[in-house]
Write a structure and sequence with these properties.
single chain, mainly alpha, about 0% strand, elongated
């Protein structure tokens, strides 16, 4: 389960119905017209460890930002595979804000996200692959550099590789040098790739020399 640093508490006083926190009652309240009621219901779903699927279903249709924030926090606290699959679905949403919120949530779940990262980095949608690299930016997992090197070596989309090389410039070690050089060869006609790869290589080399 992922570690969440803080929990979003819904604004406003406790509604009177909160004495009934059974699962079925909370499912009904997630559909309530009142955003405050939906916020508290999403928060109280944390007491039901198998509630991720209904929370994901609500998240994909929820328009109120404050309600979405609480749903995402609850999903992150639950941190199960159903929650992660739902967050992946959000990466395919037309709603840019929801996509960004999903990326932020997934960064907090390294242990659950790691098993699906390989699939995300090979997704047919290049935008999803870019989001996957963005998740790696803050995903504290020992394979982050390896995943980025694989993108640099093998991904065919220049924008995905550009995102990866930028991050390799920050987290790369000497183990990334070969992938960076191969990236330069693969995109020899792309000025930005050449610049970013050279910068990453320079940073790594300076680190090796103790500068």
């Amino acid at each position: 389960m992922g570690l969440v640093r803080s929990y979003v508490v819904p604004q406003g006083g406790h509604p009177s119905w909160r004495s009934d926190r059974g699962y079925e009652a909370l499912v009904a309240k997630l559909m309530d017209p009142d955003p405050q009621t939906r916020r508290w219901a999403a928060r109280d779903m944390l007491d039901h460890i198998h509630s991720s699927s209904v929370l994901v279903e609500r998240l994909l249709q929820e328009k109120d930002v404050s309600v979405r924030e609480v749903i995402l926090t609850t999903l992150t606290c639950l941190g199960d595979t159903t929650a992660v699959r739902g967050l992946i679905d959000c990466l395919r949403s037309e709603d840019a804000a929801l996509r960004n919120e999903a990326v932020s949530a997934m960064r907090l779940l390294p242990d659950v996200v790691a098993p699906v990262m390989q699939d995300l980095l090979h997704d047919a949608d290049s935008d999803v692959r870019i989001f996957a690299v963005n998740i790696l930016e803050a995903l504290r997992h020992p394979r982050v550099e390896q995943w980025l090197c694989e993108v640099a070596e093998f991904d065919s989309e220049v924008n995905v590789c550009a995102t990866a090389v930028d991050l390799l410039g920050e987290v790369g070690t000497p183990a990334a040098l070969d992938a960076l050089r191969k990236l330069k060869d693969r995109f020899a006609e792309e000025p930005y790739i050449q610049f970013a790869a050279d910068l990453a290589i320079s940073r790594i080399m300076h680190g090796m020399n103790g500068h």
